[in-house]
Design goal:
The protein is an alpha+beta fold. The chain is built from four helices and five strands. α1 links the parallel β1 and β2.
């Protein structure tokens, strides 16, 4: 079993956790224990608990509403008039430095081939990075 509390001293960045109090997948007590440990270690953290929320935080709040509540105003007010990247049929390509992550939403979300990593040669990488239609 993974237990982040045992490794809390290794956390180097501010941490935000939201947790539903009715979560039947991960007990809310786990988050409360982590919160206590981070406080003892002097680690920067914010914990937000949603009364009656399950693992997905619903029915207390949706993940999107929770994200907007914790995000700074410029992020939470973003609007996107383009097609959703997660629409079936879309392919998303993300430049991750030495590798390219391809996500093919034609595949079933449960498929092991939904995500595919490709390495690229330096010349190909230069062409890829200069073509804005393929970048995120």
């Amino acid at each position: 079993m993974r237990n982040v509390i045992e490794h809390a001293d290794l956390i180097k960045c501010p941490l935000f956790i939201d947790h539903g109090t009715a979560d039947s997948t991960v007990s809310v007590e786990h988050s409360k224990s982590l919160e206590k440990k981070l406080k003892e270690l002097g680690k920067e953290h914010i914990f937000k608990y949603y009364e009656g929320g399950e693992h997905s935080l619903e029915p207390a709040i949706t993940k999107m509403e929770a994200f907007k509540a914790m995000a700074s105003s410029p992020i939470s007010d973003l609007k996107n008039n383009q097609t959703d990247d997660f629409t079936p049929g879309n392919k998303v390509v993300i430049d991750c430095g030495e590798k390219i992550l391809n996500i093919d939403w034609n595949k079933n979300p449960e498929s092991t081939t939904l995500f595919k990593w490709n390495t690229i040669e330096p010349i190909a990488k230069l062409k890829f990075c200069m073509n804005p239609e393929f970048r995120i």
